[in-house]
Amino acid sequence: MFKKLAASPVIIAVLLTLALLLWLLSGDNYGAKEQAPAEQQASEQKLSLVETRWSDAEPYQLTRVAQGQVLPWRSVSIKAQQAGTVMALLTRQGDTVQQGARLLQLSDDGRSELLAQAQANLTLKKQELASARTLGKSQFLSETELTRLESELARAEAEFASARLALAQIEPVAPFAGVIDRRHIEVGDVVQVGTELLQLAQIDKLKVTAQIPQQHIGALQPGQQVKLRLLDGRQLNGELSFISYAADTATRSFYVEVTVANPELLRIAGGSATVEVQLEPVQAHLISPALLSLNSDGQLGVSVVNEQQQVEFYPVQIISADNEGARVTGLPERAQIITQGAGFVKPGDKVQVAGAKP
Questions:
Q1: Do 250 and 222 sit in the same domain of this protein?
Q2: What is the longest distance spanned by two Cα atoms in the chain?
Q3: Domain total for the chain?
Q4: Helical axes 143-168 vs 111-137, angle rounded to 10°
Q5: For residue 124, which of 2, 9, 109, 302 sits 20 to 30 Å off, Cα-Cα?
Q6: Strand arrangement, sheet containing 317-322
Q7: 204-222 confidence digits (pLDDT tens)
Q8: Which run of H or E residues covers position 318?
Q9: Is there a contact between 60 and 284 (Cβ–Cβ < 8 Å)?
Q10: pLDDT, mean of residues 265-281
Q11: How far apart are alpha carbons 293 and 313 in whole angstroms?
């Protein structure tokens, strides 16, 4: 049977045809493995579309605001230094007086006689000592006697000075130029040492005191200009004249004083005022608070597009905020701020700008 199959020419032809087909197929498969497929052109990556607005920094006047109290430049309560009866009032409430002006007069009560007696005793002791020194030169007086006379003279001088001061104190005088703000006595009143007589205030110059939080004190220095806003809307100009060197331990705030000229003698001492200390101007951008965001480190900032059309994040500091918007520092002098689409891009991304608004 094998011999019959081997001898059949048809079968041999079929086998040869199958072998040829297998060889051809194996050749195509090998060529496909050796030859790489044609490269396809990568589709161009689509850039994120953002809207921007150009912003230019402008000078902004920084201020620090605090509530303060308006005080007279100087104020003193004139008190009785001698006991007596009020004999005369030489000034009235509201009068302007000069330094050294007599304000009132108390009863003498024998003080003039005591002064005359003390002066006579002083004259006597001076003469006795002069005579003793002359005798001492002739060795007719001992050193001990001379020393006793010198001691008596010193006592007489002290008694005279005390009597003269007591007489002067029955007519109190103004220690400085000012206004009689209050009068506490009337003619005929009997006063004792320490009784309040008058209140004298200097108001041609005022002093405004305030407390500044410790985080703001570093920006202040004496000489800075200050604006004061009174409750009735009036404004005054002053100068920061003093800053305490140590903070209040309870409030952690620093005491400051502002000097304000008051040539018109406005009746504002004792009231309150808003203190606005004007700092050095800074370059700041005015933006909408909605453009502020936080980066991965929790820093507050603004996203901008640089010259390479890439996103940059700038940390900023808010220095003021009002109805117009927020003023911030930390951006370049001129910045292309992203107004739409900032939430879909990150720093370093290249973006397509839809059109920067001026």
A1: yes
A2: 189
A3: 3
A4: 160
A5: 109
A6: 58-60, 282-287, 325-329, 317-322
A7: 999 999 999 888 888 899 9
A8: strand 317-322
A9: yes
A10: 90
A11: 9
Residues 143 and 159 in one domain: yes
In the predicted structure, residue 251 carries a pLDDT above the cut 50: yes
* The two three-digit tokens of residue 313, written as one number: 């994040």
- Cβ atoms within 10 Å of 120's Cβ, excluding its own: 12
Q: How far apart are the first and last CA of the chain?
A: 100
- The answer to the question of residue 182 being in a domain is no
Position 47 scores a pLDDT of 85
Residue 249 falls inside a structural domain:
yes
Residues 272 and 343 in one domain: no
- Give the per-residue pLDDT at 2: 40
Q: What percentage of the chain exceeds 70 in pLDDT?
A: 85
For the record, the structure tokens of 245 come out as 């060197």
Residue where the block lists tokens 């009866």: 85
Residue 103, pLDDT score:
96
Structural domain includes residue 37? no
CATH of the domain at 164: 1.10.287
CATH of the domain at 226: 2.40.30.170
Alpha carbon of residue 285 to chain centroid: 23
| Cβ–Cβ under 8 Å, residues 352 and 48 | yes
- 270 and 306 fall within a common domain: no
- The C-alpha atoms of residue 84 and residue 241 are separated, in whole angstroms, by 42
Specify the residue for token string 């009746």: 267
CA 257 → CA 157, 200, 286, 308, distances in Å?
45, 21, 32, 52
Helix (H) or strand (E) holding 149: helix 143-168
pLDDT of 44 reads 44
Q: Using the 3D structure, point to which of 225, 252, 278 is the last residue of a domain.
A: 278
Residue 308 structural domain: 50-60+282-357
Phi-psi region of 270 (alpha: psi -120 to 50; beta: other; left: phi over 0): left
What is the arithmetic mean of pLDDT over 70-87?
96
pTM comes to 0.65
Residue 41 per-residue DSSP state:
P
Residue 299 lies in a domain: yes
H or E segment and range at residue 29: helix 9-34
CA dist list (Å): 208 to 25, 61, 164, 238: 104, 22, 40, 9
The CATH number of the domain holding residue 298 is: 2.40.420.20
